[in-house]
Amino acid sequence: MQLKPKKSLGQNFLHDKNIIDKIIQASEINNKDIVLEIGPGTGNLTKFIINQKPKKLYVIEKDFRLAQDLEKKFLKKINIIVNDVLKIPNEFYSGKKFLILGNLPYNISTKVLSMWCLKDELKVSKMILMFQKEVADRITADVNSREYSRITILSNWKFDVKKIIDVKPNSFFPKPKVNSTVLEFTPKKKIHQIKDPKNLEKITRVFFSQRRKMIKKPIKILFKNNKFNFNKINIKPSDRPQNININKYLKIVNEYELLRN
């Protein structure tokens, strides 16, 4: 019997084999990989992951009914964690390197991605993740574009991001009302160092809370009475948040951390 998706959990089960094949091809799973699948649902992608024979497969499924169903289907081939992905303790991530796959629930997708980007404990070889197309467009946006946002900066700080494929609503059951996009995240070989990732989260939040306003106000909020040197970072008080590239945001974080010491 097909389990009925829960609207409250934003469940849309991917069933399109062509899309599943693209995800599997992009993931390049091998027998050394520890795979983490988020929101496996009815296991349509899970069975193809198992066929690739990873070293270990964890799945995080919040819905207890689906978790029970997955346990019956796959027995000891998977390690099921019945929990909200946002509430997984840091100890779970420590000491492992994951290949992460998932059709993230659209209502929490940016929260989940932001959390992973800022989590020092999380080490990944790659992430292949599905988003609502509008969110994917923001993740991959260019500076000075309307879509450029906090999630662009957080994602592209640690990862090189590329689009794998756009996905139509009829690839899911039930059909969502929006198009989706699969993105690939590969860790950058060289990451701009900041002392505390939470400072990047804070600074981008303050800047983008009024994205159309000039940046002199968020600079004043963050740096208070300390004189901020705009020329050092090559920005102007009249710039808007979407005019500042990722590298310059990271330099602002460095200045913020320097002054706080």
Which helices and strands appear, and what pairs or packs with what?
Elements: E1 13-14, H1 17-27, E2 34-38, H2 46-51, E3 56-60, H3 64-74, E4 79-81, H4 90-93, E5 97-103, H5 109-118, E6 123-132, H6 133-139, H7 150-158, E7 159-167, E8 172-173, E9 180-187, H8 197-208, H9 216-223, H10 230-233, H11 246-260
Parallel strand pairs: 2-3, 2-5, 3-4, 5-6
Antiparallel strand pairs: 1-8, 6-9, 7-9
Helix pairs in contact: 5-7, 7-11, 8-11
Which CATH class of the largest domain? Answer: Alpha Beta
What's the helical proportion of residues? 25-40%
Cα gyration radius (Å) = 20 Å
Total helices: the number is 11
Q: Give, in order, the helices and strands.
A: EHEHEHEHEHEHHEEEHHHH
**Terminal-residue CA separation:** 60 Å
Provide tags for this entry.
261 residues; alpha/beta; Rossmann fold; Helicase, Ruva Protein, domain 3; 7-stranded mixed beta sheet; two-stranded antiparallel sheet; elongated
Protein described:
The protein is α/β, with parallel strands linked by helices. The protein folds into two domains: 181 residues, Rossmann fold; 64 residues, rRNA adenine dimethylase, C-terminal domain (Helicase, Ruva Protein, domain 3, Orthogonal Bundle). It is 37% helix and 20% strand. Strands 4-3-2-5-6-9-7 form a seven-stranded mixed β-sheet. Helix 5 packs across helix 7 and helix 7 crosses helix 11. The protein starts with 12 loop residues before the first strand and ends with a helix. The model has no long low-confidence stretch (mean pLDDT 92).
